[in-house]
Specification:
The protein is of the alpha+beta class and 106 residues long. It is built from 1 helix and 4 strands; from the N terminus they run αββββ.
Length: 106
């Protein structure tokens, strides 16, 4: 009887220790993921700020490049034609590597 109590106590102690270790690992991983997410959000915010500055630069009618002044031609249009060669329905979702072959003409 005494032997089974000792085994039970050891088993409960082992389960408690395993639970504490699992909780600590979970907390560590969660904190690291949170920090990485915050870093990524900061990078995205910085990128948006830089893009808004660059897009503001091209809103004027003239652009100066390497000492020459150019006037924007608003009649030039860019059209993208893209074909996807794929068997089956285009409504099916797949990974990007199995989507089909693409051809683009600018």
């Amino acid at each position: 009887m005494e032997r089974s109590r000792r085994r039970r106590k050891k088993f409960i102690l082992l389960l408690t220790a395993a639970g504490i270790v699992c909780t600590a690992v979970f907390a560590y991983v969660t904190v690291r993921l949170y920090e990485k997410r915050k870093e990524t959000e900061a990078l995205i915010g910085a990128r948006k700020y830089v893009q808004s500055e660059e897009s503001h630069r091209f809103q004027s009618e003239t652009i100066e490049y390497q000492g020459k002044t150019y006037r924007r031609n608003s009649y030039v249009k860019a059209i993208l034609c893209m074909g996807v060669d794929r068997k089956g329905s285009m409504l099916d979702t797949t990974t990007y590597t199995f989507g089909g072959r693409q051809t683009a003409f600018l």
